[in-house]
């Protein structure tokens, strides 16, 4: 299943947030969306997942999602969005219950995703007992449990400290190498974009428009072996964005 | 998940089903609508009025709103409303200001000093839940039957919630800001004045909102003690005489008083808490 | 002049205060009087205890006895009394209870009785009825409803079976068909309903002032009895007195509407403020028996007989 | 600032003054001390007792604590306490449970549906601040002088704050969690049951704390109407009889009742909100 | 003025947080302290500034601070710690008022520090109107206003998005090049450490001990010109810390 963004524009009341966005998310690819603060990245991701509707344009599903997929478009949120009153297992079972998956069937799935995210020992822990990195791993496990056709990630690492971020980035790469998941990954961290993205969509400041789409051809597993190449891509992106970021930073909010 | 080794798609768009992604957001965001409330109230009052007119609601059980309004107009025209309001507002003002000033001082002490907190917090916890009508006989003996006991009733009623709001507010001032003040060598009193008090202001204002409602609620109790004038006294008399129209009119006046005070505090919040994000 | 404050209620039964004030009897005795009005009787005694006022008139209540026991107040004279032939408290039954056979006070055993509060004069009246008819208040269901208005409401709607109330209100209820009269308190025997009282300190330190007060007050009582006791004797004087009383009572009603109530409420007041000490002693005993007055209170502690005659 | 081109130090440690950095932290963290409160209360009661014994405090103004305690023991020994408590607790339980169940339903509606919110919120805002004693005559007419009106008084008193707590709690449930539920295609009712209700639980429990105090405060008002037994009736009688010792004993019982309920809710919070960080 | 940490150990109740920390902060140098989450970095910085006292050891001032320094040891906090009810100017004047500096004297200082942090146009803005990067710039201006002998910075950039972080890092370097301030800079971002630190102190996980002290000899202004060298230092640090970070991440909090 591919996803096609078709001429998406959006305004909240009088504020134009997005302007005529067009691109395609191909199955098995990680697309990174980068752009300065407030340019509409999160809004765009909400459109892609059907949580909100753009004023113009539409998001199209091309092809049917795999039959076994319980929730084809699945989010991973910046703030993890775990229910604090449920244990790790309970949080995963939450998204299965409504599909009528309970008991041993659910246990099998939960054990599997916990193993894949190296969380097997933490099934009974409450979110408050976990570090940020672990929480995000639980959120990833939960997402995997519903066999998504496409993962929608909104700055999944930006609430983590940089060391944990580094560790989780490795985990996401490993996971992709094993499972070749499709993903739309929003970030404003250029380093993440060049480490994880097969293709990077660069948005301008608000109203967000596509400024550039950069393909990164190095296979994910080899990227750390080519620091100079990556740095070059990153510098290219940073040059595209630097002035916009500065201007966005200087803007007075609701003065 | 598609089990591919390279990131390309298997299906050509033309051959595959194309449909928009399903929408599944929205909801869970009720808003205070500007339209519903007036309609609702108009409907409520019309039904009530009609019920009274057509005799579905016995006048003993509830007067028609128009009758209550008539009672209110009588009060206005006879000039008594001013007298009642004057008396009540004076008591409210004195009691509330007194309770607030004392509550601020005591609450601040509890918020700043371990010793004070140790004494004040359990004391307040024990005394706050005592119904003030139970204490009326005591107040009469302590303060007599003049204005003092009425003011004291309201003062007592506002003192305890103010203390709680103040020390709660002080507790909730961002410790990071206080630490910042210390790190710049600000004096103790500077920290209290420039960081703690403004930081506790939101909690203080919402405490004022509560203490003002309590003060208004206590007006009736306070005016049980030999008051000739006052909204509370008017309501009590109406209750005594089973004059339901006057009772409803009096209660409506209290309700309006409460809404006005709440509106005033809302204004104060808008002005003094402009800095809130 | 001595400045004194008198606690008064806007009731017809308090008329002597208004008469003595309006006619200058207090002035003649060198008393500079301020009238202070109360909504209920109980706080008058408390106000004397707290020193807010000097003199008051109220019924004997549990609270009053308690204050007397603590040495705060003393009875110095009698006021309203139940006397055959004069208007007095009426015992009413609800229509439903009447239809079910509650037609005399003797039928009140097992019935419910409305009163303002425990230890109030309404409570005592229930006690009087019970004693007279050979049962106790424990055989009745006493309902404390705080306010006279609530009592009337409860009686009208049949939620209580009976109550006692001052004559002019009773007349209105009976005439309107809202309740039935089943007896009068005055038929149960002597009952000194209200007394004049002051602070213990006044009786000890300002005896002269108290005496002068009583003289002036007695004049007010005499005037009232002379005119209102027999209203047909001198209609012009009656109307004049109604005018005077209307300055203080039922002020929210026009005179023509207030007059009948004022006239109908002309209860008997003890001549010369004479005090029925025997009945006071009986009341005290009843209150004590029912745990409504402190056991340590004695008649000596309660009453100072230096200021008025005593009967019996 | 030192004006150097390279990052080295100008002074040799041996030649320079060496002293510890000045300490400027600490303070602004009063703690509820386990010691202060008992000492404070013991001191307070001793002074009070002494004051009464030595005649500094007139028995009319305030009874000695020992007398109040004696009155309490009389109540216990006469077996009356059980009767009073039984009557009051029954009224409290019925009124509070009724008000809470209704409040939950109405508050949830206001928290979930725009239309309901539009009607409910202004209605509650107008009715909450009405003193319940003012409505006693109305309650007598509506519900009679039996248990119904007493329960109704408490029910009314607890209903409104519960509604406010519930819709406030629902409003404060992290919208991110709701959006998460929607993004996983959870059904509407699943979201309400599994996300909104547990998420609002902290607010509900603190709402219960408030409504329970209000219920206890209203006990006295409720038992003004024809109650033979009940702590409120006991206090009212004590006030009528000017029996200050009994009054203080009764008020102390209410205060203890309030503290017990508050403790119970504290336990419930510990158990049900274990998941809170 | 140098600062010397002399055998500092600390425990909160039963938890040992720091273990025998010794190092010196030389005038004009930026010392970066890195270490995994919860290893006691913030605690250590509080000791250095005198906001808290260690159970053992002490922090010594060697030499007197410059006479004109109003507040020799000045913090810059991760969460900015601006008073939200004061404007930008008001926040700066706050720290001058207690030194009796008001009126034109204060205005001169405030104008000067606003100019140095490129904030001149924002003096009247309230904190809520500013983006995170701007807020941190205000905090820096406030710190400069009291002419500190040593800046104590606790993860000053970790609340910012990565693009703003990049911009502010440049600003901190520029400022150092002009003013040669002394600083103790706590971070867990290794990239920040190698970009800003003359010397990097690496702490182990809790209880924090000094694992290594790494000098970085490339002048600050030249660092971006040697990406490979920097990357090498960063990789060295990451190898020192990787396992510790992973272990710290896996720890259950107050289970
Ligand atoms: N529900 C909403 N109502 C009104 N305005 C909104 C809403 N959601 C977002 N906005 C505005 O739309 C713009 C884009 O918001 P969005 O969150 O999509 O940006 P972003 O690129 O994700 O920013 P960031 O990098 O800070 O996450 C912002 O100006 C924001 O204030
Ligand atoms: N006031 C305190 N009382 C008790 N324990 C504390 C206190 N402050 C910090 N701690 C504990 O001390 C340890 C070190 O805390 P500290 O904040 O110094 O770590 P850190 O290295 O700054 O961590 P981070 O990278 O998360 O900022 C932690 O385990 C923390 O829980
Ligand atoms: Mg976003
Ligand atoms: Mg820290």
What is the element layout, followed by pairings?
The complex is a heteropentamer, with two copies of chain A (255 residues), two copies of chain B (277 residues) and one copy of chain C (312 residues).
Chain A: E1 2-12, E2 15-25, E3 30-34, H1 41-48, E4 56-62, E5 73-76, H2 88-97, H3 103-116, H4 132-145, E6 150-154, H5 162-179, E7 183-186, H6 190-196, E8 199-203, E9 210-215, H7 227-250
Parallel strand pairs in A: 3-7, 3-8, 5-6, 6-7
Antiparallel strand pairs in A: 1-2, 1-4, 8-9
Helix pairs in contact in A: 2-4, 3-4, 6-7
Chain B: E1 18-20, H1 36-53, H2 65-77, H3 80-112, H4 114-127, H5 132-143, H6 147-171, H7 175-183, H8 188-222, H9 231-240, H10 244-272
Helix pairs in contact in B: 2-10, 3-4, 3-6, 3-8, 3-9, 5-6, 6-8, 7-8, 8-9, 8-10, 9-10
Chain C: E1 2-9, H1 15-22, H2 25-28, E2 31-38, H3 42-49, E3 55-59, H4 62-69, E4 73-78, E5 81-82, E6 90-94, H5 95-99, E7 112-115, H6 121-132, E8 141-144, H7 148-156, E9 162-165, H8 167-175, E10 179-184, E11 191-192, E12 194-199, H9 200-205, H10 207-228, H11 235-246, H12 255-264, E13 275-276, H13 277-289, H14 299-302, E14 310-311
Parallel strand pairs in C: 1-2, 1-3, 7-8, 13-14
Antiparallel strand pairs in C: 3-12, 4-12, 5-11, 6-9, 6-10
One magnesium ion (MG) binds at residues 41-42, 154 of chain E.
Keywords (chains A, E): ATP-binding, Nucleotide-binding, Transport
Domain ABC transporter (chains A, E): 3-232
Protein name (chains A, E): ABC transporter ATP-binding protein
What would you say this structure looks like, in words?
Chain A is α/β, with parallel strands linked by helices. Chain A is built from 7 helices and 9 strands; from the N terminus they run βββαββαααβαβαββα. Chain A has helices at 41-48, 88-97, 103-116, 132-145, 162-179, 190-196, 227-250, and strands at residues 2-12, 15-25, 30-34, 56-62, 73-76, 150-154, 183-186, 199-203, 210-215. In chain A, a hairpin with a 6-residue loop joins strand 8 (199-203) and strand 9 (210-215). In chain A, helix 3 packs across helix 4 (132-145) and helix 6 runs antiparallel to helix 7 (227-250). The mean pLDDT of chain A is 92. Chain B has 277 residues and is an all-alpha fold. Chain B is 71% helix and 1% strand. Chain B is built from 10 helices and 1 strand. Chain B is flat. Mean pLDDT of chain B is 88; it is low at 1-13. Chain C has helices at 15-22, 25-28, 42-49, 62-69, 95-99, 121-132, 148-156, 167-175, 200-205, 207-228, 235-246, 255-264, 277-289, 299-302, and strands at 2-9, 31-38, 55-59, 73-78, 81-82, 90-94, 112-115, 141-144, 162-165, 179-184, 191-192, 194-199, 275-276, 310-311. Chain C is 42% helix and 21% strand. With 312 residues, chain C is an alpha/beta fold. In chain C, the strands form 5 sheets. Chain C has a 5-stranded mixed β-sheet with strand order 2-1-3-12-4. In chain C, strand 7 (112-115), helix 6 and strand 8 form a beta-alpha-beta unit. In chain C, helix 11 (235-246) packs across helix 12 (255-264). Chains B and D meet through helix 1, helix 3, helix 4, helix 5 and helix 7 of B and helix 1, helix 3, helix 4, helix 5 and helix 7 of D. The site of one magnesium ion has 3 residues of chain E, from helix 1. Chains B, D: Residues 85-265 form the ABC transmembrane type-1 domain. Chains B, D: This is ABC transporter permease. Chains B, D: Belongs to the binding-protein-dependent transport system permease family.
